[in-house]
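Section 5.1 Outputs to date
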Amino acid sequence: MACTANLPVISSPNPNPNLKASASLSQSSFSAKLHFSSQFCSLSPSPLSLRCNENLLRRRLGGHTSSVSPTFEVVTSAKPDPLKIMISGPPASGKGTQCELITKKYDLVHIAAGDLLRAEIASGSENGRRAKEFMEKGKLVPNEIVVMMVKDRLLQPDSQEKGWLLDGYPRSQSQAAALKGLGFEPDLFILLEVSEETLVERVVGRRLDPVTGRIYHLKYSPPENEEIAARLTQRFDDTEEKVKLRLRTHHQNVEAVLSIYEDITVKVNGDVSKEEVFAQIESALEKLIKQKKATAGPVAI
């Protein structure tokens, strides 16, 4: 703990190593920043007050009997605001893998709109009930319902305390504007960029094991044996034609969202290995954390 003390000038021929002071002399007094062991002071049950053993301090300063009436100001480091991150990427960009790596290292609350929607419906909440009505009619869930779900999740204590990673949302300018209107703005918008050729190859080669639910890839992550290979299925929209259509939609949506988050967007090359992709993301996040700590600075309590 660091304490600031205003003390009379005391000459001490044998400075005690337990006491380090950086002082600016002015006539008969100086203002010093002291770092001292628990022998000098003890905290009361409240962390906002400090007691100092004046007699012991006087002896440590050279045995002087002059009156010492120090005034202490307890200084502590302010806790930086938690991270608020958004991440976006086209289908098969590896976004899910990167979300796992980010949340594991930085302990953020991972929020995916799709998962949130399913959870709200399963819980029978008001938002979930309203969303289910639209889905049962084969209609898209209105933006205002999804935005309210996201808002409620972002306001939960764990999100406020630990920070959050909003996965694949917002997907349109109207959704981004709605979140901004509610007071939710990210520190960073991470955009995974992958070439169309790579994305098509990743999607077309994907296969699902209906028994275990595991996702395989015929080239990059083939099944372990012939038995598993024989039962693998392909999603109806995992074709070159369908994926190119989804990519066009994604690019249109991203361009609209970037108009709001342009100044805080970090574009990441997603054509490389997952480790190399994460290294780029990690570098951006570490820089952000450093900036937050510098902005927080010390505070007196």
